[in-house]
Specification:
The structure is a homodimer. The first copy, chain A, is mainly alpha-helical and about 220 residues long. Helices cover about 80% and strands about 0% of the residues of chain A.
């Protein structure tokens, strides 16, 4: 009853996609919890993180089994080892969504400091970069992966914008804003770190496709 | 002229240890740059990060070659795949040292807000956890790896202490402290994240030794 490697690789891909969908949802939900300052949403995200943790372990097991039993070569070998790295990045993204809602917990019951503008923008960017990084992986699309890496600058800029505004226009002017400004500042940092992970995934995707090391060599994208 | 797998695994271990030594030095140096508010040290750490980046790529290549050419089984297979995950964690720790010195850049030329007490403690903890995680890997020491995982709580506590003090005793009382307090608050976060990576490495080490999933199951350590 031996199944073919191709089928097993398709299964692995499906598992990663399923994990990706949950992770994207966690990012989205974390922002909704901030918009609504809803403790119910916060608790939901924290409890659902366990499912994502289990998926990382399951994917790692699947990969080790494939390596041991099929002894794959070339692109298949890189696909499997990169899947192990990607599952770790996805799990850490989910952890960052939990980090975000932990900051939201500190804000529940207090009036929001300011209307949310750049943080939702950064959230959208983080979600899209995560989605595109995984799509690039599934479709072996080096161009899409490259576009994710290039968008990382945008994330850095948005994060800086949020930070400067909070420090210069709020905390430095009125000390009573500090306890509400710091969680927002940290949320922007967490979001930017999600974008970093999407960038890491994209680097792995390009490596898988080209067996070429883009990682730490951004000039190769130009 | 074929060499034995054992020798190749020893080489791989040496490479990881070498990378670990550089990463530990980067953590130490980042704190010295904060103590001295020295722009020379800042620049040194940023320029040396490239060496660590290259090492991650080299280790990944080495692992892929071993998987393709030696088709290792059981503990050797796990050792090699875990090496790829560990090299990623080490590289991210080095990135966090760079994050720290970027916050130091924002502080150079300004008087320090307060004497540094808990941040150096957290630095020492981060450095020791990183060192112990790698030692646990090299010596296949599950007990030492377990002790790293248990110390992660201590890191969280120290980070919270720093954050609370900065928000409650400084920023909330005197708005003019914000621009000097925020970088310190972020440095504490970066250090705590280094401890998270040391914890991730230790989970991988235990997995490698026991083929058991401690990751996401801390209750197994009790």
């Amino acid at each position: 009853m031996e199944r073919h490697l191709d089928q097993e690789l398709t299964d692995l891909k499906q598992q990663l996609l399923k994990m990706g969908t949950l992770v994207e949802a966690a990012i989205f939900e974390s922002m909704e919890s901030l918009k609504e300052l809803s403790i119910e949403r916060v608790n939901k995200i924290i409890s659902e993180d366990r499912v994502i943790d289990e998926m990382e372990n399951a994917i790692d097991e699947q990969c080790l089994d494939l390596l041991a039993l099929r002894q794959p070569m070339a692109i298949d070998l890189r696909f499997i080892t990169m899947s192990m790295k990607i599952s770790t990045d996805l799990e850490r993204i989910a952890d960052l969504a939990v980090d975000i809602v932990q900051r939201v917990q500190d804000l529940v019951g207090k009036p929001l400091l300011k209307p949310l503008i750049d943080i939702p923008k950064l959230t959208k960017l983080a979600q899209q970069m995560t989605k595109d990084a995984l799509d690039a992986f599934v479709n072996k699309d080096a161009e899409l992966a490259g576009s994710v890496i290039l968008r990382d600058n945008e994330a850095d800029k948005l994060r800086n914008l949020v930070q400067k505004e909070l420090v210069n226009d709020y905390m430095s002017k009125d000390s009573s804003t500090a306890s509400r400004a710091v969680p927002l500042l940290l949320i922007a940092r967490h979001l930017e770190r999600i974008c970093d992970h999407a960038t890491n995934i994209s680097e792995d995707v390009i490596y898988m496709i080209n067996a070429d090391v883009v990682k730490h060599h951004p000039e190769k994208l130009k």
